[in-house]
Amino acid sequence: MDDATRRQFIDRVRDFQARGDPSGWCDQVYRDANGDVTAVFWADRVANPYLLDWLQAHPAKDPLLRAVTIGCGVGDDAEALAAHGYQVTAFDISPAAIALCRQRFPDSPVDYRVADLFDYPAAWAQQFELVFECNTIQIMAGAYRMEALNAIAALVAPGGDALVSCRSRATGTQEDAFPLPLDQTEIDGFIRAGLKQTALIAYDDDQQPPVAHFFACYHKPRA
User: Fold this and answer.
1) How many CB atoms lie within 10 A of CB 8?
2) 58, 118, 130, 165: which could join 67 in a potential S-S bond, CB 3.0 to 4.6 Å?
3) Buried b (16+ CB within 10 A) or exposed e, 132-158
4) Could you tell me the CA-to-CA distances from 28 to 16, 87, 95, 99, 115 in Å, in that order?
5) Cα separation, 104 vs 183, whole angstroms
């Protein structure tokens, strides 16, 4: 994406945000791809490596364990969860994204759904033993960020885990960036939401220049 295209894209995102629709712009990106996954500029088309490492270290021991992928995009993380033995629900606000997932993985056991993080089915609350969030909160603005975080935390079943992958920043920096990385205070919102942090990995990715990230793991205690 060249600089002019990126500026136009960010202007469109901020226009949606100003209208109180923090993620409504997402569907246009997938519709513009017209079924070509390579045209979705943020899609890595591989599962998150830190998710894969966690799944290797924590094998699913019960075939009835449920997992959910937040803003599932083109589906690679959801497919990895299914391959490691979870019953997976994967949702995205974009109908075009879900159509692309079903096109890519026509025989998948994953239950791909169109759903809104701010208005998902009430029956999903506290129903998932594993919740995976990757890069959703960072595309939100203002109060929507903590609203999204709390909605994600509310999906975790007692005794379950949440894994969070996102860009990171020092507090007080990059305030005008998009996507806006999470600082330490923001990601600690998962602790304030009642989860116990079990790991927090801070690392730089392999882009040039490198981009700082968090990969955080949380556990929800049983009552």
Assistant:
1) 12
2) 130
3) bbbbbbbbbeeebbeebbebbbbbbbe
4) 12, 29, 10, 13, 16
5) 34
Of 200, 110, 194, nearest in space to 156 by CA: 194
List of long-range contacts for 80-87, beta carbons under 8 Å, 24+ apart: 80/47, 80/48, 80/51, 80/52, 80/55, 81/51, 81/55, 81/110, 81/130, 81/132, 82/108, 82/109, 82/110, 84/55, 84/59, 84/60, 85/59, 85/60, 86/60, 86/129, 86/130, 87/63
> Tokens representing 106?
């026509």
Residue 2's pLDDT band (cuts 50, 70, 90): low
Residues 130-161 have pLDDT tens digits of 999 999 999 998 999 999 999 999 999 999 99
